[in-house]
TrEMBL record:
It comes from the Bacteria. The lineage of its organism: Bacteria, Bacillati, Actinomycetota, Actinomycetes, Streptosporangiales. GO terms for biological process: response to stress. GO terms for molecular function: DNA-binding transcription factor activity. Residues 1-135 form the HTH marR-type domain. This is HTH marR-type domain-containing protein. InterPro entries: HTH_MarR-typ (IPR000835), MarR/SlyA-like (IPR039422), WH-like_DNA-bd_sf (IPR036388), WH_DNA-bd_sf (IPR036390). Pfam families: MarR.
Amino acid sequence: MHDRARTANLLGATALAVADLALAGAARTAGVSVSGASALVVLFWSPAVGVTELGRRVGLTQSAAARMVDSLEAAGLVTRRPGAGRAVTVEPTPAGRRLARDLLAARDAPLTGLLDALDDEEHETLAALLAKLLARAYGEVGDAELLCRLCDRGTCTDNAVCPVGQAERDQRG
């Protein structure tokens, strides 16, 4: 009989360790907050997003998102552009795009290092299990953009289907 409480505890400890490793490298590389780093990655994949939408995608209120964008703009990483009516979009500058690529690489390095502990079969098994857990996480979170805010979307969808995107499509019917 499997001890589900122990498995849940192991998952929680692993999730925190992985998050700490991934976010520490990314934040160090960026020299910005974790939400700022997330925003740069979001803008890398969706280069013209409104402040409110950007905040939603990184888990911030509109006012906190506006302050974050102010900080990123002061650092020369994003710029605001007038949109339709009173709307304003946020776009990464060339420096912001370069930093987003660096962030993704910094996030990937410690994660790839952890995966070196697995053989090929274990790697495939883990990938399938993670896809299943991410689909379930989408059911709990209900927001693919928020869930994948620091995701390397190109890597995720190269010769595969994103499990979060598929869960979103499945839920919409």
